[in-house]
Amino acid sequence: MLGTWALASAPYGVADEPAHVVKAAAVARGDLSTAVQWRTALGARVPATVVSVPRGYVADLGPCDASGAPITCQPRPGRSSGSRVHTVTYVGTYPPVFYLIVGLPSVVLPPDPGLVAMRLVAAAAAAALVTAAWTSLTRSGGGPLALVGLLAAWPPAAMSLAGSVNPSGLELAAAIAAWAAAFEVFGGDVGGPTDDGADASPVSTAAVVRLVTASSLLAWTRPLGPAFALFILGVVAFGAGRRRMLEVLRQPRVRTGLAVTAALLGAAVVYVLAVGAPSALIQDSGPFDPPLQRVRGSLAQTGALWHEAVARTGWRGTSPARAPAWSATLWLGLAAGIVTTGFVRSSARWRVALLGILAAGFFLPVTGALRSPGVTWQGRYALPLLVGLPLLGGLMSDRRRSGRRVERGAAVAAAASLGALGFIGLQAHQARQSRGADRSPFAAMTDTQVAGWWLSPRSLSIVAALVTVALVVAAVRTTRSSAARSSPPQEARPRS
């Protein structure tokens, strides 16, 4: 699915991709420059870092920023990298790990097909992390409703980012994997009777490796990564309880894994502070509202930010690509349903944990508005924390065995609905890029002309439809295997 998003987006048609491509091409060639020179552009203060990259990897945006214009007016990158030139990027202070991973194709390939290869590498890394998350969830007692929670944590906006050259996609995938691995290591069977701190079963080495890898990648992907990783570990440790944590920490492999994680998170904090990443952000020039008014304005935007976190799939032009508003509302409704079910079925400590995640989603934008009034907060910034809600809600929803047949049907229906909404989001993304703003979500579905890369919108739609069907089939198989595990063994009849 992420591969279809990588191929569906026109060149440089996803959030901040031109700046991230330049950073990736520079890091892959050993240019780790982080020095910031402040410049003024379009009434804003922009942190510019000078780097050296091949000329072909510097985007020429041109007229495609016109309001409502089809993003496909952006020409495909050239087939020659060209000579090295000095250019600027406003993400120069971001940690280099993501850029090293996705920038390697630019070393051996020209911009066409180098840019799409970079996207596919990013998509593969995100897919591997989400797969690791599902492994952790199943080994934490998760079943069909946990699968719904995982799907709800991966909206169209996230899929678009994961299929682009933007560290937000890898950040979100790493956060999902970190939440799931933390549940597996610390929370035990959070969906079962051991969530009150009963004797801890041995934690596998694979689980510890997943936790260390996901937490470290999260910390080294974006400037807020270390804080997000610490928040995830703290919330899950609180939900697990003191007794459970003490018993888990008696295991040498867990202590070793936490030591490695602490060292890598500490190094990430040192890096972020040393290069001044928290303050090297694009800032409006003002004037700014008083603090109390900024708080009220931030809280009033909560609903819009959550819709944006689900639906916004592109950025070029003043009319960005979005999934239909009704589909975002339905997606949030399905996520709220799984969270509410999990809240009702969870223990007191895990209920407090869920409320803590929800509170962070409300007040993180407020904190940003107070600390940096000139910085525009976007809905995707809080997603690494908010995805903990459906993930934990799905695990908790699987804890009771009553009404399993009804729950299995509901899980399949919810998974099918989320898959269909993701498909609709892709169609709206293609329509905005190929036909322009204010088009029907399905306007480009039957187009046979290649608008972005090698596959036409119709071909991509067929691939996405097949993937959606595969997700539904996976949900059905998961419900059946869960039912088989929960069914009591039948006594053998004596032979006559």
Would you kindly provide a written description of the structure presented here, covering whatever features stand out?
This protein has one domain. The longest helix is centred in the C-terminal third of the chain and has 32 residues, at 404-435. It has helices at residues 2-8, 17-28, 97-108, 111-139, 144-152, 156-162, 167-187, 205-219, 225-240, 242-249, 252-274, 291-300, 302-311, 325-345, 348-371, 383-386, 388-397, 404-435, 457-486; strands at residues 37-41, 44-54, 84-89, 283-284. The chain is 60% helix and 5% strand.
String of helices and strands: HHEEEHHHHHHHHHEHHHHHHHH
Q: Detail the poorly predicted runs.
A: 191-198, 487-496
Query: Structural class per helix/strand content?
Result: mainly alpha
Instruction: Report the biggest beta sheet as strand number plus sense, adding barrel if it closes.
Output: 4 strands, antiparallel
**Integer tally of domains:** 1
Mean pLDDT: 84
> Number of helix segments?
19
Radius of gyration, whole Å = 23 Å
| Residue share in helix | 55-70%
Share of residues in strands: under 5%
Tally of DSSP β-strands: 4
The first-to-last residue Cα distance is: 56 Å
| Shape label | globular
Summarize the structure.
With 496 residues, the protein is mainly alpha-helical. Helices cover 60% and strands 5% of the residues.
What's the SSE blueprint?
Layout: H1 2-8, H2 17-28, E1 37-41, E2 44-54, E3 84-89, H3 97-108, H4 111-139, H5 144-152, H6 156-162, H7 167-187, H8 205-219, H9 225-240, H10 242-249, H11 252-274, E4 283-284, H12 291-300, H13 302-311, H14 325-345, H15 348-371, H16 383-386, H17 388-397, H18 404-435, H19 457-486
Antiparallel strand pairs: 1-2, 2-3, 2-4
Helix pairs in contact: 1-4, 2-3, 3-4, 4-7, 5-14, 5-17, 5-18, 6-7, 7-8, 7-9, 8-9, 8-11, 9-11, 9-15, 12-15, 13-14, 14-17, 14-18, 18-19
